[in-house]
């Protein structure tokens, strides 16, 4: 969890660890930022805050439950609010009803679109997603319209793990195929000979709550379990008897692969033609995570080629999949219709978890499961806006530089400023650094509300340091530096003299800039993406790299070289508007004077 070297905030009611109550009357307007104005005898202050208090309404708030919810959750809701259970609403019917509701609870089948928020007329204060994924909720529209979005990420963990194990065993023993054969009047014992699980290697990709529970159960079946997850705790893995390995080793040595990662830009189609080609022939794959992490057409090709012996899938890129789907109809594929959380116990647990979150939000409490709604004084937000962008991008850069299997556990953030410690609120900056570190490989949406909680859940310790410098206090910050300790780096030059990955940045003319990598000074705008090259400083090198990129029509936005001394080692930072092809990056790496390079997405 985060630790601090800064004095307490002037207004302790804004502490993330407290549960602040909102005042009795309020209104929200939508000009430059969402503004919170209060009717009271005290002087007004304006905040960006996206929760609301039910105390301002004389009668009970109204909660619309648009999909089936467990009875225990409904009971909790009814103790606090009027509950309207209206299932299978069309989009038009939902838009008509929503203007009369203070909260909405959905599962995965209801799309909460921008039109829904616009139709609410400002009354809708909370959307509760009874489950983990929030792909069906327009988060940007929710935030714009002052609506908090909460989910229920923990209650279905055991159910999903059990379903993963059920598919694993059913696949290995051809249970579904043999069942269908017998019901067709056949008796084919020889055709459906299976494989044993004992002594086989299971690679768990994504070692979070569900992944670790699958690992526990697989160990009980006598399997050797390895795992890959950049944020997995080595101590927790060892306690379960699991070995953490890198991605390449995981997919190349496993007899079985079980997927438990979120669907993000980094994991989209993570299993594809290239990765299937690296797997052991005859590997078996289970997916109870998200359909999009597998390139489904590539999986069919791998099944037909014999690279993948079998697959067991509970999730699909398109749900429900088309009836003529080659993957679903494949004889060596076992499928279920997204049943991972479908147990009586899990449904009740999810119902209780989401009901508690929605009721708490309507009372004006900050929810640990909130997935949007940063709360910060509007004037501070305006001043820190470019530094917020800088903070997130430094976090994204730093985590992409990490290599190896140890994971990110210790991060130090240093703020150089001429302001007094109590005149610089860094909560939002710390949250955005956390966002940059975690979001690229996680389904969690990190913001000021849940940043410290999310970091703690992943064993990520963030410490902050203020460096006081001389200068004008008109500028809130001179620079932000992010250091990650006790990790290896994909780009050795990013390691500082003290042994940590180090990146530093400044805001120049309102635009975030990368100004330091390891011990090398650079100056490149943090727009688009970046290529970092360590090279021997010599004439013509910039032209060679620029020529390679130009031949592919990749536009170079900035280029900067930091060097130790003339003709010695240097680091070149190149800002590009587009992602170069693998071939172009390979050609850059083959330039004789370039000793190492890395491509980083922003």
TrEMBL record:
Organism: Gossypium schwendimanii (Cotton)
Enzyme nomenclature, EC number: 1.1.1.95
Source superkingdom: Eukaryota
Domain ACT positions: 530-602
Alphabetized PROSITE patterns for the sequence: ACT, D_2_HYDROXYACID_DH_1, D_2_HYDROXYACID_DH_2, D_2_HYDROXYACID_DH_3
Swiss-Prot/TrEMBL GO biological process terms: L-serine biosynthetic process
Localization: Plastid, Chloroplast
Protein name: D-3-phosphoglycerate dehydrogenase
UniProt entry tagged with the keyword NAD: yes
Molecular functions (GO terms): NAD binding; phosphoglycerate dehydrogenase activity
InterPro entries in the record: ACT-like_dom_sf, ACT_dom, Ado_hCys_hydrolase_NAD-bd, ASB_dom_sf, D-isomer_2_OHA_DH_cat_dom, D-isomer_DH_CS, D-isomer_DH_CS1, D-isomer_DH_NAD-bd
SMART domains: AdoHcyase_NAD
Pathway info: Amino-acid biosynthesis; L-serine biosynthesis; L-serine from 3-phospho-D-glycerate: step 1/3
Entry keyword Plastid: yes
NCBIfam families referenced in this protein's UniProt entry, alphabetically: PGDH (TIGR01327)
Matches recorded under Pfam families: 2-Hacid_dh, 2-Hacid_dh_C, ACT, PGDH_inter
Keywords from the named record: Amino-acid biosynthesis, Chloroplast, NAD, Oxidoreductase, Plastid, Serine biosynthesis, Transit peptide
Reaction catalysed by this enzyme: (2R)-3-phosphoglycerate + NAD(+) = 3-phosphooxypyruvate + NADH + H(+)
Annotated family: Belongs to the D-isomer specific 2-hydroxyacid dehydrogenase family.
SUPFAM superfamilies found in the cross-reference section: ACT-like, Formate/glycerate dehydrogenase catalytic domain-like, NAD(P)-binding Rossmann-fold domains, Serine metabolism enzymes domain
Principal location class: plastid
GO cellular component terms, semicolon-separated: chloroplast stroma
């Amino acid at each position: 969890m985060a630790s601090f070297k800064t004095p307490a905030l002037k207004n302790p009611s804004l502490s993330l660890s407290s549960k602040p109550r909102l005042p009795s009357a309020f209104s929200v307007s939508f000009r430059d930022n969402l503004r919170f104005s209060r009717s009271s005898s005290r002087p007004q202050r304006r905040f960006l805050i996206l929760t609301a208090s039910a105390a301002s309404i004389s009668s009970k708030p109204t909660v619309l439950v648009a999909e089936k919810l467990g009875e225990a959750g409904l009971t909790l809701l009814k103790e606090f609010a009027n509950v309207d259970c209206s299932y299978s609403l069309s989009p038009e019917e939902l838009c008509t009803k929503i203007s009369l509701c203070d909260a909405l609870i959905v599962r995965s089948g209801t799309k909460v679109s921008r039109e829904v928020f616009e139709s609410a007329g400002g009354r809708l204060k909370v959307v509760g997603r009874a489950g983990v994924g929030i792909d069906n909720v327009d988060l940007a529209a929710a935030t714009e319209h002052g609506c908090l979005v909460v989910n229920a990420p923990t209650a279905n963990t055991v159910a999903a793990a059990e379903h993963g194990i059920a598919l694993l065993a059913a696949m290995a023993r051809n249970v579904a195929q043999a069942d269908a054969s017998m019901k067709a009047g056949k008796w084919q014992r020889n055709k459906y000979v299976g494989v044993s699980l004992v002594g086989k290697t299971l690679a768990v990709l994504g070692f979070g709550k569900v992944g670790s529970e699958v690992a526990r159960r697989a160990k009980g079946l006598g399997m050797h379990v390895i795992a890959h997850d950049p944020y997995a705790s080595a101590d927790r893995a060892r306690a379960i008897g699991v070995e953490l390995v890198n991605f390449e080793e995981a997919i190349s040595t496993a007899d079985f692969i079980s997927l438990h990662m979120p669907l993000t830009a980094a994991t989209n189609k993570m299993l594809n033609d290239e990765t299937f080609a690296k797997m052991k022939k005859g590997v078996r794959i289970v997916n109870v995570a998200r359909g999009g992490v597998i390139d489904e057409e590539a999986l069919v090709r791998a099944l037909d080629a014999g690279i993948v012996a079998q697959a067991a899938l509970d999730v699909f890129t398109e749900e429900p999949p088309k009836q003529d789907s080659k993957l679903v109809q494949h004889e060596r594929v076992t499928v279920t219709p997204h049943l991972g959380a479908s147990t009586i116990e899990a449904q009740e647990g999810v119902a209780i978890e989401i009901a508690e979150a929605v009721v708490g939000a309507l009372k004006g409490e900050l929810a640990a499961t909130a997935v949007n709604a940063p709360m910060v004084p509007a004037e501070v937000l305006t001043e820190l806006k470019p530094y917020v962008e800088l903070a997130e991008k430094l976090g994204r850069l730093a985590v992409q530089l990490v290599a190896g299997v140890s994971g990110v556990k210790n991060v130090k953030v240093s703020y150089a400023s001429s302001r007094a410690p109590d005149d610089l609120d860094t909560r939002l900056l710390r949250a955005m650094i956390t966002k940059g570190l975690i979001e690229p490989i996680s389904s969690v949406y990190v913001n000021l509300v849940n940043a410290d909680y999310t970091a703690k859940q992943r064993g990520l310790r963030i410490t902050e340091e203020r460096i006081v410098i001389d200068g004008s206090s008109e500028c809130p910050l001179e620079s932000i530096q992010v250091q990650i300790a006790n990790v290896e780096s994909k780009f050795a030059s990013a390691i500082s003299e003290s042994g940590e990955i180090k990146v530093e940045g400044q805001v120049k003319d309102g635009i975030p800039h990368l100004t330091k990598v390891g011990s090398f000074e650079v100056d490149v705008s943090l727009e688009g993406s970046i290529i970092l090259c360590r090279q021997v400083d010599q004439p013509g090198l910039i032209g060679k790299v620029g020529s390679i990129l130009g031949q592919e029509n990749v536009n170079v936005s900035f280029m900067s070289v930091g060097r130790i001394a003339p003709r010695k080692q240097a680091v070149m930072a190149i800002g590009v508007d587009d992602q170069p092809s693998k071939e172009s990056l390979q050609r850059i790496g083959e330039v004789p004077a370039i000793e190492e390079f890395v491509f980083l997405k922003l």
